[in-house]
Amino acid sequence: MLPAPDIDETPLPQEPPLEYVCRMAREKAQAGAVAAHGQPLGAVLGADTAVVLGDEILGKPADKEQALAMLKALNGNEHQVMSALALSHRGQLEVRYAITRVQFRHLDEVHLQAYVDTGEGADKAGGYGIQGLGAALVASLTGSYSGVVGLPLEQMVELLDQVGIRYWQTN
């Protein structure tokens, strides 16, 4: 696995959220497509995920106060999680995405603060992680659970199949 590429993840002015996550996935795949010594790699997968409330992208919270503000905004509401994948393979770049609707439970501030205090969502878009304790914040979802986690597996398998990479083989 390569280290995370050093790219600017700031959304462009007026950039729609889906275009943003697709662009980020492409840039990450392109940045990783050449190894440190300039040798092309066989295949590089780039991915990005955004939590979107209305038209606003909720990134990773800067601190506990921002995390709580995000959770309050999501509380009792539906939002979207957009995850994009880009596969760079033999000079080609293919992109796929998944959009999942997530309905948050309605919780009081004490519960939201308790979740923030766990620190689990500090490094996650929207300030929560559905794959851990944050699952208790969610009432329901429609779409890709793995996309909410950050890697939509159905789209990944589709990309790998397209280029003949057999993901189930160990060698």
TrEMBL record:
Keywords: Cytoplasm, Hydrolase, Nucleotide metabolism. It is an enzyme of class 3 (hydrolase). The keyword DNA-binding does not apply. Its cofactor is a divalent metal cation. It is found in: Cytoplasm. Pfam families: Maf (PF02545). The active site is at 48 (proton acceptor). It catalyses: a ribonucleoside 5'-triphosphate + H2O = a ribonucleoside 5'-phosphate + diphosphate + H(+); a 2'-deoxyribonucleoside 5'-triphosphate + H2O = a 2'-deoxyribonucleoside 5'-phosphate + diphosphate + H(+). The keyword Acetylation does not apply. Its EC number is 3.6.1.9. HAMAP family: Maf. Nucleoside triphosphate pyrophosphatase. May have a dual role in cell division arrest and in preventing the incorporation of modified nucleotides into cellular nucleic acids. NCBIfam families: maf. This is Nucleoside triphosphate pyrophosphatase. It comes from Alcanivorax jadensis T9.
